[in-house]
Structures are given as structure tokens and as C-alpha cells.
Specification:
single chain; alpha+beta; three-stranded mixed sheet; 35% helix; globular
Length: 77
């Protein structure tokens, strides 16, 4: 049906501030990225450095939403 859980892996840099920003990021993602096309969004701190795995217009949106932080990976499951 095209719906699913979107999981974003981000660096450990924001782990300390995670609880403070999680809700605002969730709202931004819902409103600006997925609108009503997703059941659930999970944002997960990820502490290992990995290659960028984000492309297209999503990369621009995510870089803006997570300004100051390096986004490691996003996957839809």
C-alpha cells in the first residue's frame, strides 16, 4: 500500500540533545516530507560513521531539517 516505517540513522553528535529535538523533527518530517503517506516515522541515533545513503530532493530536505548534523542513512522498511 506504499505505507511503511521510515527509519533515519543520524550521527551520535545529537544523542545528548535527542529528546529535545525529536518531536520537532518528527513534525517537520510529517508536514514537509511525507505528509499523509506514512504510518510512522522513527528517528534513531546512529553512532558509526557510514557513507551517505540519501539522494535526490530528499537529501536537500533532510540536510535542511538536520542542519548542523551529518545524516548517515535513511531507509524505508
Amino acid at each position: 500500500n506504499g505505507l511503511g516505517i521510515h527509519v533515519f540513522y543520524i550521527t551520535g553528535q545529537i544523542v545528548a540533545a535527542w529528546q529535545l529535538i525529536q518531536h520537532e523533527i518528527y513534525k517537520e518530517l510529517q508536514q514537509r516530507v511525507f505528509a499523509e503517506n506514512v504510518n510512522e516515522i522513527k528517528l534513531i541515533p546512529f553512532e558509526q560513521n557510514e557513507d551517505y545513503e540519501i539522494s535526490g530532493c530528499m537529501a536537500l530536505v533532510m540536510r535542511r531539517l538536520f542542519e548542523g548534523y551529518r545524516i548517515i542513512k535513511w531507509q524505508v522498511s
